[in-house]
Each structure stands twice: as structure tokens, then as C-alpha cells.
């Protein structure tokens, strides 16, 4: 199961065709920024969770604590984070590993606490997107 964030903006769907390419660039930028930020959150130390020793790796691995973004171990989660066009003014950002959803939201049993990385990345990128949309719409109003 994967985590998918779909970026669309209803307001953007009502803009004139002349500004459509600008709006598309804003949506694409937000999607790509979300994907990059999500990967960054996984890759960036420090993590403060348990330290594990593994037969597969010579050095110990420090896991993330509940509430922190997941700690990178194999790189599979980071490599699975993608942004792709999903339609007119719509992009999807996806973490495609089978365990991505469990990390983001925690497990149903409660054994795994949430370690959000996608939604915080979306919130950060969303702020930039909103600023860009406001600026674009302000310019439209000045015409």
C-alpha cells in the first residue's frame, strides 16, 4: 500500500486559458517540491529513536522516534517517492513502498506510531503554492 497526495486547486481550474500554463507550472512545482521535501525528511538526520544492529549492515541504524519522519535504512522509501502529472492542473506525489502508509499514519494495531513525512512536506510546499497563486491572481486583477 502506498501514500498518494493528489495536488489540485479548484480555484486554478477557473483561471483564464492565458494563465493556464502559469498555473500548471505552479502545480507542478508544488508536486516536485513536495516529493523533494518528503525525501529530505527521510534522509535528514538526526533521528532520536532506538538503535538497531543488523546482520545485513555493519554499522548500527538509528530509527526515528514516533512523530519524526522515518529514518532512512535501505533507501527504498526515498527512491519510491515520485511526482507525476495526473491530469489538467493535477499532479500526484506518491511514496510507493508497501510500508509507506504505515509509516505516515501508523499501524491500525497501534504497534507502529505515525512517522509523517509526506503530509508535512505537502504543508510546506503548499505554502509556496498559495503564495504563487495569490501573486498570479493579483497580476490577473491588475490587467
Provide structural commentary:
The protein is of the alpha+beta class and 143 residues long. It has one domain. It contains four helices and five strands; from the N terminus they run βαββαββαα. It has helices spanning 20-43, 76-79, 100-105, 118-142; strands spanning 3-7, 51-52, 61-62, 81-87, 90-95. It has a three-stranded antiparallel sheet with strand order 1-5-4. Strands 2-3 form a two-stranded antiparallel ribbon. A hairpin with an 8-residue loop joins strand 2 (51-52) and strand 3 (61-62). Helix 1 (20-43) runs antiparallel to helix 4. The longest helix has 25 residues, at 118-142. The radius of gyration is 18 Å and the shape is elongated. The relative contact order is 0.24.
Number of domains: 1
Main beta sheet strand tally, sense and closure: 3 strands, antiparallel
| Overall shape | elongated
* Mean pLDDT value: 88
Rg over CA atoms: 18 Å
The number of helices is 4
**Unreliable stretches covering 5 or more consecutive residues:** none
Which strand order do you get reading across the main beta sheet? 1-5-4
Please state the structural category.
alpha+beta
- The strand count comes to 5
Helix content: 40-55%
Distance between the termini: 47 Å
Order of helices and strands: EHEEHEEHH
The percentage of residues in β strands lies in 15-25%
